[in-house]
Automatic annotation (TrEMBL), chain A:
<protein>
    <submittedName>
        <fullName>FMNH2-utilizing monooxygenase</fullName>
    </submittedName>
</protein>
<dbReference type="Pfam" id="PF00296">
    <property type="entry name" value="Bac_luciferase"/>
</dbReference>
<keyword id="KW-0503">Monooxygenase</keyword>
<dbReference type="InterPro" id="IPR051260">
    <property type="entry name" value="Diverse_substr_monoxygenases"/>
</dbReference>
<feature type="domain" description="Luciferase-like">
    <location>
        <begin position="36"/>
        <end position="316"/>
    </location>
</feature>
<keyword id="KW-0288">FMN</keyword>
<dbReference type="InterPro" id="IPR016215">
    <property type="entry name" value="NTA_MOA"/>
</dbReference>
<keyword id="KW-0285">Flavoprotein</keyword>
<dbReference type="InterPro" id="IPR036661">
    <property type="entry name" value="Luciferase-like_sf"/>
</dbReference>
From TrEMBL, chain B:
<dbReference type="InterPro" id="IPR011251">
    <property type="entry name" value="Luciferase-like_dom"/>
</dbReference>
<protein>
    <submittedName>
        <fullName>F420-dependent methylene-tetrahydromethanopterin reductase</fullName>
    </submittedName>
</protein>
<dbReference type="Pfam" id="PF00296">
    <property type="entry name" value="Bac_luciferase"/>
</dbReference>
<comment type="similarity">
    <text>Belongs to the NtaA/SnaA/DszA monooxygenase family.</text>
</comment>
<dbReference type="InterPro" id="IPR016215">
    <property type="entry name" value="NTA_MOA"/>
</dbReference>
<feature type="binding site">
    <location>
        <position position="97"/>
    </location>
    <ligand>
        <name>FMN</name>
    </ligand>
</feature>
<keyword id="KW-0288">FMN</keyword>
<keyword id="KW-0560">Oxidoreductase</keyword>
<keyword id="KW-0285">Flavoprotein</keyword>
């Protein structure tokens, strides 16, 4: 379903280490020594909430970060190591009130049963602000950390062999999400009855075996965790091309895409909407956010100089899958409005330096967007679904009552 | 010279999926909403308890082919709740049961290391095993593990997790901006493990956590379980079973430590125990009886009897006599997903003994289940209970207790307000936390210090 033209713009921030530029940790404003403390993450999310953002995502991975796409490296000049994203989200949940918390989950090596109860519980501890960002891992070294399977090495992305590997990994992720979603629905909302007269704590007719049988999983259910407050927490995924677009179209409430201009945005939106139609979900609201790396300063020359300085420290120019924006909050607001005309419903910004660019978003960009009448002035809902304008979904197993 | 007073360790088990928890009491609140966990944890911390404990279940219990609906059903995810509780507590240890069968060491190790970082050194892991295909139906690998391999997998799982925890020493992150060196060592986190159950290698991606490794607990009373605890655990959970049995268990488990080169004080014995308090001992006994009636309804009594009889007994009157028919001793059991089922290894003998007991005392089915079921450990005035707990610990029947209140979430309040001050007056329980980590509370060495100690000896 397409958004209405007057719909407000949604804004997310992607949290990763000290920021998305690999030399970001060397900025004086960064706190690399605090990366493994709760206070560091609590401060970042509090800042994002001060800016009234819809949600934060928390990056994760089942191996050390690397400068190579699929292989580990031996570098010591960049941040290495990270904490579990679901636990970070849970740790900050009681300290925040409104902002959505969307940790990354790697579907390739995890059990959907565990993920389902973890995100359902994140929804319980945050009173309805949980989501997940599902990701695959095509890294052979991460597979070796589990020792249960071998992920074939991908040499050229566009080769038929690589496409087959990736298609399998994304199909598995789609099934993973399907199992997770069914488990969230495996308890009806009013299953707990506490009927003292009959001694029954639950109405077992309102609990459902999910009996998922697929290529990658067979899961019986029901969940051990009652249905989360949002019914279905938000499922999101980053998508660069057709195969992941299909995952977004089939299973997500929110997709992050990477348009570099308005024309590309329009083409990506059209492709995802077509996949959505093919998946039989044309009537469901699916958010598409544009991903951008941002260097924000009041003087555009300062932003460019900062990028150059960090590139020099890193020893090479920073490249990204997403468009890298360098400029002022007002220039970024112009760009967001331009890209949005291509059919996007919001943006996920990747701050180049979290300590600098996150406050620049919340204190510079947000007021600018508010002045233009495209961003909220106060949180209008207490749940992430509420913030994203998504209804609480009906229960797929609800028993017909006469 | 008299022996110095031992300091008591106290922990609190969040009431939940068990037949101790009374959900029908008007004071019983949610066992899912986070506010219940916050209230319970903050009471435990106000009382200066060592830690809070969460149990685990990975498949809803079934009986007679249907989901069991008479006890509390459902619980949240352990790691997620504990991480959230780290935000609303400062010192309380956060202990979670995590199964070694339906998880992988890399993932569990990074979750516990993350929890230890995010709580400032308060994480503990109760390692349990499972092997049944029933639970396995919820996991992609299924229920593949032969029963005999469960401890061998558990021990190797723990050893592998320890290798991952130890793959960072704690001094690798230098974050030297000027020099451009974040890591001192490109190999930080490197590990190789080849064993019977796991063949994994690579780099662990969570730096060393405040406690080095989480505290490790082991629950289980079998010979294998005791041996596992003696070799690898920092504490063992046992069942409360009276002073003499407690002392025998204590002596047995502590005596096993030497063969692993461990000292007497390197493994704590912490039985789980319930309590009922009253203004007089008589009133407490009456209350305790009332709690048992709440725990064991007529319907619950019949279901409990089915564990032994392994037959549908729903046609019987819980207020009537025990069934005359014998238990069904076939392999397939009527109840699934429940540890208690294995308690009755000889159902025919148990049934015979129970019939005799019921006849001698003129007990109905419900009376019998109430009288033979889980008994409350500590019943009496706060003074009686404080004295009994202290006697238990001072006479080496335990090092403390994991208290299991029967009301969620307020069931700990009375103990915190009335019994803890008496233990403090006796000089056997802390009035303030002395350290910040769970290892500090439990008097356990940091693993790095233990390593240095071994190296020096």
């Amino acid at each position: 379903m397409s958004p209405t033209p007057s719909a407000p713009l949604h804004l997310a921030v992607a949290l990763d280490g000290t920021g998305w530029h690999p030399a970001s940790w060397r900025e004086p404003v960064s706190r690399p020594g605090d990366l493994f403390t709760a206070g560091y993450w609590a401060d970042l999310v509090a800042e994002a909430e001060r800016g009234l953002l819809d949600l934060v995502t928390v990056e994760d991975g089942l191996g050390p970060q690397s400068s190579h796409l699929l292989d580990p490296d031996e570098r010591t000049d960049q941040v290495r190591g990270r904490l579990d994203a679901v636990l970070i989200a849970a740790r900050v949940a009681p300290l925040t009130r409104h902002i959505g918390l969307v940790p990354t989950v790697v579907a390739t090596h995890t059990e959907p049963f565990h993920i389902s109860k973890a995100i359902a519980t994140l929804d319980h501890v945050s009173s309805g602000r949980a989501g997940l960002r599902v990701q695959i891992s095509a890294r052979p070294n991460e597979a070796a950390h589990f020792g249960r399977r071998v992920v074939p090495r991908i040499d050229a992305y566009d080769s038929p062999a690589a496409q087959e590997v990736l298609t399998d990994l994304f199909d598995e992720a789609a099934d993973h999400v399907e199992v997770v979603r069914r488990l969230w629905d495996s308890w009806e909302d009013d299953a707990e009855i506490r009927d003292v007269a009959t001694g029954r704590f639950i109405d077992r007719d309102k609990l459902h075996y999910i009996d998922f049988q697929g290529r990658f999983f067979s899961v019986r259910g029901p969940s051990i965790t009652p249905r989360p407050p949002q019914g279905q927490p938000i499922v999101s995924a980053l998508a660069h091309r057709t195969v992941p677009y299909r995952l977004v179209a089939r299973q997500a409430d929110l997709g992050y895409v990477i348009p570099h201009d308005a024309g590309q945005a329009r083409a990506i939106v059209a492709e995802v909407r077509a996949e959505q139609q093919a998946a039989g979900r044309a009537e469901e609201f699916l958010h598409l956010f544009g991903d951008l790396v941002v260097f924000l300063d009041d003087d555009p020359a300062e932003a460019a100089a900062r990028r150059d300085r960090l590139d020099t420290l890193a020893g090479q120019p920073y490249i990204s899958d997403a468009r890298i924006f360098t400029g002022t909050p007002a220039q970024l607001a112009d760009l967001l409005e331009d890209l949005r005309a291509g059919g996007l419903t919001g943006f996920r910004l990747r701050p180049a330096v979290l300590g600098h660019d996150l406050p620049a978003i919340t204190r510079g960009l947000v007021p600018e967007l508010q002045r233009r009448g495209v961003f909220r002035h106060a949180y209008e809902a207490d749940t992430l679904r509420g913030l994203l304008g998504l209804p609480r979904p009906a229960h797929r197993y609800t028993t017909a009552t006469a | 010279m008299s022996k110095p007073l031992k300091q008591i360790h106290l922990a609190a088990h969040f009431p939940g999926v068990n037949n101790t928890t009374v959900w029908s009491d008007p004071r019983a609140g949610s066992h899912i909403e986070f506010s219940s966990f916050v209230r319970f944890a903050q009471t435990a911390e106000r009382a200066k308890f060592d830690f809070l404990f969460l149990a685990e279940g990975l498949r809803l219990r079934e009986q007679g082919g249907s989901i069991y609906d008479l006890d509390v059903v459902g619980r949240p995810d352990t790691f997620t709740v504990l991480a959230a509780l780290a935000a609303v507590t400062d010192r309380l240890g956060l202990t979670g049961t995590i199964n070694s069968t339906f998880n992988e060491p890399y993932e569990v190790a990074r979750q516990f290391a993350s929890l230890d970082h995010l709580s400032g050194g308060r994480a503990a892991w109760n390692v349990v095993t499972s092997w049944d295909a029933f639970t396995g139906e919820n996991f992609r690998r299924g229920g593949f593990l032969p029963q005999g391999e469960r401890y061998s997998r558990a021990r190797e799982f723990l050893a592998t997790a320890n290798e991952l925890f130890d793959s960072w020493h704690g001094d690798e992150i230098i974050a030297d901006r000027a020099a451009g060196a974040f890591l001192r060592d490109a190999e930080a986190g490197a590990f190789v493990h080849q064993g019977q159950h796991f063949d994994i290698h690579g780099r662990f991606n969570v730096p060393r956590s405040p406690q080095g490794r989480p505290v490790v607990f082991q629950a289980g009373d079998s010979d294998e379980g005791r041996e596992f605890a003696a070799a690898d655990a920092d504490a063992i959970f046992s069942r409360y079973s009276g002073l003499e049995e407690g002392r025998a268990f204590y002596t047995d488990v502590k005596s096993r430590l030497a063969r692993y080169g461990r000292r007497h004080d390197q493994l704590l014995i912490l039985p789980a125990a319930t309590f009922v308090l009253g203004d007089t001992d008589t009133e407490a006994r009456e209350l305790a009886h009332e709690v048992r009636r709440q725990q064991v309804s007529g319907a619950t009594a019949l279901k409990h009897l089915e564990f032994v009889w392994n037959r549908d007994l729903s046609a019987y009157d819980p207020d009537g006599p025990l069934p005359e028919i014998d238990p069904d001793v076939s392999e397939e059991h009527i109840a699934r997903g429940r540890a208690q089922v294995r308690m009755y290894r000889d159902p025919l003998a148990t049934a015979r003994a129970w019939r005799e007991l019921a006849a001698a005392h003129h007990w109905s089915i419900r009376d019998l289940v109430i009288e033979t079921g889980n008994r409350q450990a500590f019943v009496g005035t706060p003074d009686t209970v404080a004295r009994t707990i202290d006697d238990f610990v001072q006479s080496d029947a335990s090092d403390g207790f994991i208290l299991v209140p029967h009301i969620t979430p307020g069931g700990l309040d009375e103990f915190a307000d009335k019994v803890v001050p008496l233990l403090q007056e006796r000089g056997v329980f802390r009035t303030e936390y002395e350290g910040t980590t769970l290892r500090d509370h439990l008097g356990l060495a940091h693993p790095d210090d233990a390593r240095d100690e071994r190296a020096a000896s």
